[in-house]
Amino acid sequence: MIRTQVSLDEQDYKLAKKEAKALGIPVAEYVRRVIRRALPSSGRPAWMRYAGLVESGNRRSSQSIDEIVYGDKD
User: Fold this and answer.
1) CB of 61 within 8 A of CB of 68?
2) What is the pLDDT of residue 51?
3) Is the dihedral of CA 53, 59, 64, 68 positive or negative?
4) pLDDT at res. 32
5) Mean pLDDT in the chain?
6) Above pLDDT 90, what percent of the chain?
7) What is the pLDDT averaged over residues 15-29?
8) CA-to-CA distance for 19 and 31, rounded, in angstroms?
């Protein structure tokens, strides 16, 4: 791991510290996670970062994906 130094204004630091505390992690780990989310994914297509974010409410939706995406066939 490479060590680096980042300067934050007081308000940003307070918010980062509050979020880190809520997650039960150090501020440094919180900052690493935020940066990781903002950077392009390594080797995966960009759309893959959104995979699994949409829920249909149907536990069997993967078996009828065409109907979910395109609607019922007429």
Assistant:
1) yes
2) 65
3) negative
4) 93
5) 82
6) 43
7) 95
8) 10
C-beta pairs of 17-24 under 8 Å, 24+ apart in sequence: none
Which structure tokens are listed for 22?
């809520």
Q: Which residue has the tokens 């007429």?
A: 74
What whole-number distance in Å separates Cα of residue 28 and Cα of residue 71?
Answer: 46
**CA-to-CA separations, 34 to 11, 47, 59, in angstroms, rounded:** 17, 18, 31
Query: Whole-angstrom distance between the N-terminal and C-terminal Cα of the chain?
Result: 57
pLDDT at position 65 is: 72
Residue 48: both structure tokens together:
């893959």
24 token code pair: 């039960």
Separate counts of helices (H) and strands (E) for the chain: 3, 0
18, 27 in Cβ contact below 8 A? no
